[in-house]
Amino acid sequence: MMDHRPRRILLVDDDPSLLVVLSEQLSEDGYEVATARDGQEAVHRLESGWPDLILLDLMMPRVDGLALARQIKADADLPIIVLSAVDSADSKARLLDEVAEDYVTKPYHYPELRARIQRVLSRLGDRIPRQSLVLGPNLTLDLYRRAATVAAKEVQLTPTEARLLNVLAANLGEIVATETLLSRGWTDTEEADPSYVWVSMRRLRQKIEVDADHPVHLLTARGLGYKLVAARDDG
What we know:
CATH class of the largest domain: Alpha Beta
Number of strands: 12
CATH topology of the largest domain: Rossmann fold
Distance between the termini: 34 Å
Radius of gyration: 19 Å
Mean pLDDT: 84
Strand order of the largest sheet: 2-1-3-4-5
Number of helices: 8
Structural class: alpha/beta
Number of domains: 2
Largest sheet: 5 strands, parallel
Shape: elongated
Strand content: 15-25%
């Protein structure tokens, strides 16, 4: 059954006027918006439920934006767009590599911000499921926590690995084209090429397969793409 509820956005910023104005703009576009004035308040908001997207300022009292983003990513791979007056290229690159899907500099232009929000949500596709996905006696995926249990041992997944597996899991047993995986795994890399997918799939096999040289779950469809399959007997 399709989920038609509005996408939920948590807006975290210590500027009260921005919270009011941006909340109204987002609400007019059909989003369900919650706000927090600092990182500590945001943590309390997250305890009552996860949003679909977080808009996050960096410079805040108590728990700052970067610390909050790291804390969030340690628990679940929620998409984060940084909204900050800091316009350093090095800061942008570091945040995009570590915790953020996109970075918008203040003062923001709302049509551009809206387009970036829509792009991130559409490219991330289906929401990451909260429930575990059991694919066999030796593999369980917990993509919401960016983790996998392989032969009774838990391994951590990177944000990119979790996104790729989420796309494959949403099409379980079916081939997903390399181009699709590329566009969903690297949402903000303009010059990504198929080798990104090939390398990531090889690394993923080393993480989630008992024997990476003889995979039973993450399979290659030569010349087409990849598919994730369940197996009754991994051995």
